[in-house]
Fold this sequence. Notes:
The chain is an alpha/beta fold.
Amino acid sequence: MLRNNDRLKSLCRIRACSFEQFKRTILAIDMPAIYFLLSKALLVLFAICSVTRVIAQTDVLESQVKAAFLYKFPAYVEWSSSSFADAASPLVFGILEADAIADELSLLAGDALLINRKVVIKKLRAGDSIDGLNVLFVGQSQT
Length: 143
């Protein structure tokens, strides 16, 4: 029993080492392998960041394409005289639950005239009235 305790004490004893022993231990580590692993870890991190950026760009591109489609759409419609209150009435877009598309459409429209009418974009929420709209876009449901 005493012999086992001595062995345990010798295993658990903290030894001080010289600086030379420490240097030999550090130099024994395979540095090229560590550099290789670090480079792979950085590549993975870069890939994750790139994918996140591509996904974000895809969402923006989708909003831009939908807004462009909506902007061009009224030019292909034959509007009856009853579609507008008078000749000076604006063309009113209602964008329901799709603020990114409404923002892109606002950028496209600017102060330009579309079918010889000023363009008005209204951001709508569920339950808002759709009276007075000429074009209604319903975004995807978030539920």
